[in-house]
Amino acid sequence: MRSLERKRALVIIGGRQGIGKSIWQMAEDDHNDYWRYVIPTAETEVDVTDYDSLEAFAETLWATGHHNLDVVYCAGINILGKIGEINQADLMRTYAVNVAGFIMTLNALKPHYTNQRVNVTAIVSDSSRVPMRGSVMYASSKAALAHAVRCAARELAPSWRVNGISPGVVADTPMTDMIDVIVPRLRGWTLEEAQSYERSMIPMGRRAHKSEVAEAALWSLRGPQFMTGSIIDVAGGK
Asked: What is the pLDDT of residues 148-185, one digit of tens each?
């Protein structure tokens, strides 16, 4: 078991629900000899659209001795809408949370952790490479996030590693529950028709489990240490 001085702080941005909560639970259950935990939840709030909040959070992390840092960026929103019906405020907020928040999180951390080894994993999406009708805001923001991962990895190496996990549709998350309501409405389908079409696009024939995405995210943080700038698909072959 690692000594307290060597154990790393695991910070999950967006760890209150869905994939982020599953990552926290798996880390706590299976790897408690590796990480200490710092999770932005009701106990430790951080607003990724507010740079003052991010700076204060980064300063607090450093000041409280969390110098060996791993970060998972799970913050994300998905607002569906067809071109011609898109609300500008929705577009700006989608990019603010899904892309700008990631970049500004790194920006806030960098002055404190310039000489530290930091591992970062962002939760991207297979929509970053698979175009979908009604998802131009979300899909394009995730494509931007994927490239932000690659740019950050190049710039921050060799002391920082920055990678992404790209899941397909993940079962039993608030975002997927929303998709199950809105997609049939946008397409004029029943829920059964929408889910049947979705399964037909996935060679594995089902949605990802949160635990599968969590497993990939934690693996990417722990190594291999030569891996950076990679986007790892957990999309069932889609």
From this structure: 999 999 999 999 999 999 999 999 998 899 889 988 88
Q: List the strands of the sheet with 8-13, edge to edge.
A: 35-38, 8-13, 69-73, 118-123, 160-167, 231-234
Q: At CA 12, angle to CA 37 and CA 181, rounded to 5? A: 135
Which stretch of 16-25, 98-107, 217-226, 228-237 has the lowest confidence by average pLDDT?
16-25
Domains, the chain, in order of start with CATH, read 8-169+210-234 (3.40.50.720)
Could you give phi then psi for residue 46, rounded to 5 degrees? -145, 130
Q: Is the peptide bond before 111 cis (omega within 30 degrees of 0)?
A: no
Question: How far is the C-alpha of 209 from the C-alpha of 222, rounded, in Å?
Answer: 21
